[in-house]
Every structure is written in C-alpha cells, then in structure tokens.
Amino acid sequence: MLELLFLLLPVAAAYGWFMGRNSEKQKELKGRASVTKNLSSGLNFLLTDQEDKAIEQLLQLLDVEAATIDTYLALANLFRRRGDWDKAIRIHEKLHQLKLPKQQTQKIQFELAKDYFSAGLYDRAEPLLSALVQAESIREAVLKQLFSLFTATHEWQKAMDFRAVVEQTDSRSLRIGVANFSCEAWRKEPAPSDAYRQLIQRYPVSLRPKYELAKKLIAEEEFSEARELLLAILQQRPQWAAELLPLVQQTTPEPAEWQQLLTELSRKHKNISATAELAQFYAEGENLQQAENLLTDKLRQQPNIRLFLKFIQIRRLQDPSEPHLAEIEHMVQAYLDTKVLYHCRNCGFKTKQPYWLCPSCQQWETVEPMTGIDGR
Predict the structure, then answer these.
(1) Phi first, then psi: what are they for 280, rounded to 5°?
(2) What are the residue ranges spanned by the domains of the chain?
C-alpha cells in the first residue's frame, strides 16, 4: 500500500502543475480579452470622432500593455501632424512616465520635446532637448530640433554653445547653421575681421562668413583679400555670380583678370550673369560686334530671356535710330520684373529676395538664384 502511495505522488504533482498552468493561461486570456475590449472601445471612439474619450481609453492600456509603445508613438505623431498638440503631449507624457529601456525612453522624450516645440512651448522643449544631445543614436536629429528652437527665439549665443557637440557629428547642415548663428550674433555686436577668419577656417562649408568678411574688407578698402574671398565663394557656388560679381568689381580687379573670370564662369559654368557681364565688357571696349556674336552664340546654345534683353541693349548701341528696339527692351524688362529670382533647393520656396535662412523650411543657406529660361 505504501508503495502504491509513492507511485501516485508523481501523478499528483503532474496534475497540480497542469491545473496551475491552465489557471495562469485563463488569467492571461482574460487579461488579453480586457485589453482587446478596451482597445476596440478606444478605436471605436476614434472612428466616431470622440477623440478625447478615445485617448482616455487608450492611455489606460499603457499600464497593462507597454509592448505596444510604437503604436502609441504613431498615434501621437499623427495628432502632432494634424496640429492637435495637446493630444500628442498627453500621450507622450504618459509614455514618458513608464519604466522602459533607456533608448526607448530617450526616443519618447525627443518626441515630447517636438510636441512642446510645435505648440510653441519652447521653455519646456529646450531642457528636454539639451538633456538628449549626448544620446549618440539621435544626437544629430536632436541638435537640428534644438537649432530650430534657437532660430525661432533668436538665441544665437545659446546655439553657439553647442559647437563642440556639432563637431562630433558628420552633419554639414549643422556646421552651416553654427556659422550662421555666429554671423547673426555679430550683426548686433560687430566682430573683428580675425573672428570671421577663424570662423571660415572652422566651417569652410559655409558661404556666409566669407561673404560677410568680404563686405567688411571692401568697406575697409582691403580689396585684395576681399577679392580672394569672393572668388572662393564663386568656386563653391558659381550660381551666385549675379550677386557676387558687382562686389568683385568693387575690389577693382585688373581688366585682364576680370575678363578671365567672366569667361571662365560663362564657358565652364554656363552662368547667365557672367555671360551678360562679358558682353558688357566687350561693349565698353567698343567691341560691339564681338559682344553681339557672344550673345548670339550663347542664345543658340542656352536660350534665356535675360541674355535676350542684353542682346537688344547691345543692338541699340549699334543702331540707336531703330525705333522698335527701345519698346521691345521695355516689354522684356517688364516681363522679367514679374519673375521670382530665388528658390529654396530644400523645399522649393520661391521669392524675389535672397535669404540666408529659408522662411519656409528654416534651413540655412538653401535659398539660391533661379536657373532656366528666366534665370540669372
């Protein structure tokens, strides 16, 4: 009899284990059913435009089912894109209270900072972003958002304080941003020429420090260095010739040097403004036929309204008695006066004025002269 009792013990243990497991499964199934019910209820509220009730219902699930974080992030981002910042903030604040892995917590904190920024709550967004700049996985994105904040608030010095962190990234746009922040700060408190030279050396990808220093040197009649800076910009961005060539002229280059520059820009880079200036150079040297031939050849290769206008002007010099040329010149000029001159290569924003900062996408040094049949 005792032997039989010992034989039954394993059977009893197995039965107990099976019943216990079955009980745990029942609890898990009930929990999942509850979550599914609440989730379905929340989605129904969303579908019937009862968003406040939907958010309350869905936020309650966070305490039960934290594995669906990405779903909540997607929902909050949807609200932010729609402009419902208060709803996005509520979701992200709730997520931020959960005990999650560090990388996930940082991601949520970044999204919450973007909510605050979108809602204009810059004083809340800034400390969250500043605390994340050392997070290597999202450092570049955090810095870009932080720089957008400093741009909106015109706190240029604060942005400059992050130069060392920027240089830990490979971001070209962040370096251009830092260089422009320095130039903006120096608009109110002018810096010496050496400060610009150091900035140029530190951020050679940025055009603005070279441009600002060149203008400063022209005012001080330091023409040689100013010309070198302007030529360096033209090497980087030959499309800026329309704005830069008048400044180069102020540095009083030798005629041969000026002709060589215009010829290179016209032939190598097919720059419209350089071609027009070269034709003007020939005309002023009483080589009207050479100027006309240049424009005729270029118009065949590269049709452009501005070159056509210059062609009419040269013809008027050759034949001042022609009655219709002045009227045609006036009509062409009136047409060109209606055209935008610049566009943002990043977002496509169009304007008649140049901007260092695009008013639309808030990116630095992306607004450039237009090209094409009306371009310069």
Answers:
(1) -65, -40
(2) 71-153
pTM over 0.70: yes
- Is-contact 80 118, C-beta < 8 A? yes
User: pLDDT tens string for the chain (376 positions)?
Assistant: 434 333 444 444 444 544 555 555 554 444 444 444 554 554 554 445 555 565 655 556 555 455 577 777 887 888 888 888 888 888 888 888 888 888 888 999 999 999 999 899 999 999 999 999 989 889 999 999 999 999 999 999 999 999 999 998 999 999 999 999 999 999 988 899 999 999 999 999 999 999 999 999 999 999 999 999 999 999 999 999 999 999 999 999 999 999 999 999 999 999 999 999 999 999 998 889 999 999 999 999 999 999 999 999 998 888 877 778 888 889 999 999 999 999 999 999 999 999 999 999 999 999 999 888 988 8
Vertex 249: Cα angle to 303 and 369 (nearest 5):
40
The set of residues, in sequence order, having a beta carbon less than 8 Å from that of 371 and lying 6+ positions away, is 239
**Count of all residues that appear for the chain in the document:** 376
Cα–Cα distance measured from residue 282 to residue 127, given in angstroms and rounded to the nearest whole number: 61
Give the rounded distance of the alpha carbon of 284 from its chain centre: 43
Q: Does domain 71-153 have CATH number 1.25.40.10?
A: yes
CA atoms within 13 A on the CB side of 114: 22
